[in-house]
């Protein structure tokens, strides 16, 4: 069987890749994709522990996380579309009205 | 066999995740994200979470990524042109910060999880994974399940309101293209 630590390490690596993606990219859509990667890394931990603890509750939580992720993506992409209408760009460092 | 499959899926997941954040073309990033989600679904299957694996493919690789690709097409994004000192500085800082986070994680895992307790065998063969999940979802987690529908309703209304744009306020912006209701 698969050791639990393998799944945890894999999840940590994917989460860190998502963090790096948020930090180094300027394109708001790619930043959103990185956030999806991080959510999926959390889901992987839920599933791995659900298997490890012989309890299926973790998979129920994955279900809820997926729902929230879907709602978040829909709202976020609507905001990005609106941003593009207003500023003609989706690069986050060109949207600097709050910079002072 | 299971270990080999896990390693294969994990390598595919890490490689495609890296390509998601490194590729210049947003469309290619989205397609690599689909590949990452599919390999993650394979890992879920290896963990005997069949329902979650299928939902992963249907919801993530299907619905959510179609939404991403549709928005990319709608905005007509080109490849990122990135240059300049502050971009390079921020990129360097991003890699350094990410490496620090990864090092912290590895350090913690090495201290606490190095022995790696094995995952036990299949939890319950009496009922299928989907059946177990449904029983739990409609008994103990009934209230959160109903709240989930409220979350989705709020998201639907919010998206319609946000993406509709203001049509009456003549604020100098061009009229919203594609008024499809």
Folded structure, characterized:
Chain A has 100 residues and is mostly helical. Chain A has one domain: Helix Hairpins (Orthogonal Bundle). Chain A has helices spanning 4-24, 28-52, 57-87. With 181 residues, chain B is mainly α. Chain B has helices at residues 2-22, 26-46, 50-75, 85-112, 129-137, 142-164. Chain B contains six helices and no strands. Among the domains of chain B are: 1-76, Four Helix Bundle (Hemerythrin (Met), subunit A) (Up-down Bundle), CATH 1.20.120.1200; 128-170. Chain B is globular. Helix content of chain B is 71%, strand content 0%. The chains are: A mainly alpha (100), B mainly alpha (181). Chains A and B meet through helix 1, helix 2 and helix 3 of A and helix 1, helix 2, helix 3, helix 4 and helix 5 of B.
What keyword list fits this structure?
heterodimer; A: about 100 residues; mainly alpha; 3 helices; about 0% strand; B: about 180 residues; Four Helix Bundle (Hemerythrin (Met), subunit A); globular
Q: Any low-confidence stretches of chain A, pLDDT <50, length ≥5?
A: none
CATH superfamily of the domain at 1-76 in chain B: NADH-ubiquinone/plastoquinone oxidoreductase chain 6, subunit NuoJ
CATH architecture of the domain at 1-76 in chain B: Up-down Bundle
- Helix proportion range of chain A: over 70%
Radius of gyration of chain B in whole Å, from Cα?
22 Å
Structural class of chain A: mainly alpha
Write down the CATH class of chain A: Mainly Alpha
Spans where pLDDT lies below 50 across 5 or more residues of chain B: none
Q: Overall 3D geometry of chain B?
A: globular
Order of helices and strands of chain B: HHHHHH
Mean pLDDT of chain A: 89
Strand content of chain B: under 5%
CATH level-3 fold name of the domain at 1-76 in chain B:
Four Helix Bundle (Hemerythrin (Met), subunit A)
Radius of gyration of chain A from CA coordinates: 17 Å
Mean pLDDT of chain B: 80
At the third CATH level, what is the topology name of chain A? Answer: Helix Hairpins
């Amino acid at each position: 069987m698969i050791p639990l630590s393998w799944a945890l390490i894999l999840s940590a690596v994917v989460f860190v890749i998502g963090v790096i993606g948020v930090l180094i990219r300027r394109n708001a859509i790619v930043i959103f994709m990185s956030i999806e990667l991080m959510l999926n890394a959390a889901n992987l931990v839920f599933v791995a522990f659900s298997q490890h603890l012989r309890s299926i509750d973790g998979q129920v939580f994955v279900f809820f996380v997926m729902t929230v992720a879907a709602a978040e993506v829909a709202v976020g992409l609507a905001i990005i579309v609106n941003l593009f209408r207003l500023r003609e760009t989706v690069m986050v460092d060109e949207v600097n009205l709050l910079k002072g | 066999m299971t270990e080999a499959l896990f390693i294969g899926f994990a390598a595919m997941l890490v490689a495609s995740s890296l390509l998601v954040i490194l590729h210049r073309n947003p469309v290619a990033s989205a397609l690599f994200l689909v590949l990452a989600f599919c390999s993650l679904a394979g890992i879920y299957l290896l963990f005997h979470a069949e329902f979650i694996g299928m939902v992963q493919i249907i919801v993530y690789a299907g619905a959510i990524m179609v939404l991403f690709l549709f928005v990319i097409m709608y905005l007509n994004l080109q490849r990122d042109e990135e240059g300049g000192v502050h971009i390079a500085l921020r990129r360097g800082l991003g890699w350094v910060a990410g490496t620090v986070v990864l090092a912290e994680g590895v350090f913690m895992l090495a201290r606490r999880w190095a022995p790696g307790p094995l995952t036990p065998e299949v939890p319950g063969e009496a009922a299928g994974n989907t059946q177990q999940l449904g029983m739990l979802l409609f008994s103990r987690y009934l209230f959160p399940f109903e709240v989930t529908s409220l979350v989705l309703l709020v998201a639907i209304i919010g998206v319609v309101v946000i993406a509709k744009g203001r049509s009456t306020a003549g604020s100098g912006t061009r009229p919203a293209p594609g008024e499809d209701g």
